Amino acid sequence: MTPEREQEISAHLERAEQSIQAARDLVVSGDHDFAASRAHYAAFYGATAILLNEGLDFNKHSGGIASIHQRFVKTGKLSKISTGCLKSVMSEITAVPFTSLSPWPTSY
């Protein structure tokens, strides 16, 4: 593995940790919508680091999730519950229409 790839993986893991802490802080302050967004990105950064470690890179969340299932769940490296949670976090947050999160009127 190249030093650049190692740095990229480390950066994704650091972003994941920062996003988890931000999500915790946002929950405490009552900002649940923003906490969900940070949790989504924590999952995304962590999954990306796993895939980069395997020499893989994906442009779409769905491709990454499918690859994690194929390479890690089917081989027993991760439990089905782990990837079920990942899939849930990654799909649920993107399914929420942003207009439902907005306190401002969507039409004038």
Structure summary:
It contains five helices and no strands. It is an all-alpha fold. The chain is globular, with a radius of gyration of 16 Å.
Walkthrough of the structure:
With 108 residues, the protein is mostly helical. Helices cover 75% and strands 0% of the residues. The chain has helices spanning 3-28, 32-53, 61-73, 80-95, 98-101. Helix 2 packs across helix 3 (61-73). The longest helix has 26 residues, at 3-28.
Question: What's the topology here?
Answer:
Layout: H1 3-28, H2 32-53, H3 61-73, H4 80-95, H5 98-101
Helix pairs in contact: 1-2, 2-3, 2-4, 3-4
Range of strand content: under 5%
Radius of gyration, in angstroms, nearest whole number: 16 Å
**Looking at the structure, what is the overall shape?**
globular
SS summary, helix count: 5
Uncertain stretches: 94-108
List the secondary-structure elements in sequence, H or E. HHHHH
Mean pLDDT: 78
Class of secondary structure makeup: mainly alpha
| Fraction of residues in H or I helices | over 70%
User: What is the β-strand count?
Assistant: 0
Largest sheet: none
Q: N-to-C terminal Cα separation, in Å?
A: 54 Å
